[in-house]
Structures are given as C-alpha cells and as structure tokens.
Design brief:
Layout (H helix, E strand, L loop, with lengths): L2 H5 L7 H22 L1 H13 L5 H21 L3 H19 L8 H18 L7 H5 L8
C-alpha cells in the first residue's frame, strides 16, 4: 500500500472526526482506572486533597466518572457538544486549579490545556462524520 493510498482513506479526510475519536479514546483510558481501581482512586483523592479541592473523594469520583462517560460519548459521537463541554470544564480545572495555570512551563498543564482546546473545537463545530449524532439527528443538523 502506498502512502498516497493510505492518506486517501475517507476517515483521514475528516480531521474533526479523527480528533473526536482520539479525544474519546484518551478520556476513556483516563476514566477507567479511576472508576474500577480503588487504589488508584485513593491516590487521586489524596492528590485532590493536597491541592485543597473541596470534598476530595467526591470530586475525584466526579472527575474520573465524567472522564469515562464523556470519553465514551465522544468515541461514539453521541451528544458530542455535551461531552466536549464536560471535558472542557474538567481540563480547565486541571490546568488552572490543579496545575496552577502554568500551561507552558508544566507538561501536565500543557496537556490539560491542549485537551481543553481540542474539546473547544469539537464543541464549536457541527456533528462530525462517523458519529451517532449525525446518524440519529441528520435532519436537525445542518450538513455542510
């Protein structure tokens, strides 16, 4: 297979769909350990406590549960704007509260802010190809 044939795949011609699916996979992977691994969750709640997050255990479960749910929704392309908004809130809190807003000096803050920007792009755009949003509500979404 030539490189030209590889890049002529329909999926690769839809960069927003690629970003949505990538972000969905990333947050599915980030959310899974938090919900199903009690040791991981105890450590994450401990981190939340060290940064003076109110109700650290509840916030840790809310954060990881939200990442898991939003990751699944983004992967499926279902309620994409709702899921992107959840990721945006989560990543703004991570970048500016947990990492003190040092988005160019702290690698973790930079990654969090980059995830925020990707979620913002998805939030501001219409349904992407290869999504349930587009399949289920095609009459209600203006296709471009």
């Amino acid at each position: 297979m030539s490189l030209q044939n590889l890049f002529n795949r329909p999926f690769l011609k839809e960069p927003l769909a690629l970003l949505r699916i990538w972000l969905g996979i990333a947050f599915l992977i980030h959310g899974l350990p938090g919900i199903f691994d009690s040791d991981y969750m105890a450590g994450f709640a401990g981190f939340m406590e060290t940064i003076d997050m109110p109700m650290p255990i509840a916030m840790a479960y809310l954060c990881k549960g939200g990442e898991l749910i939003c990751g699944i929704l983004l992967l499926l392309g279902l309620f994409t704007r709702f899921a992107a908004a959840g990721i945006m809130i989560d990543m703004l809190i991570a970048a500016f509260f947990a990492m003190q807003g040092d988005i160019f000096g702290d690698f973790q803050a930079e990654i969090s802010f980059t995830y925020f920007v990707i979620a913002l792009v998805l939030f501001l755009n219409k349904a992407t190809p290869f999504s349930l949003d587009r399949s289920l509500w095609k009459e209600k979404i203006q296709m471009g």
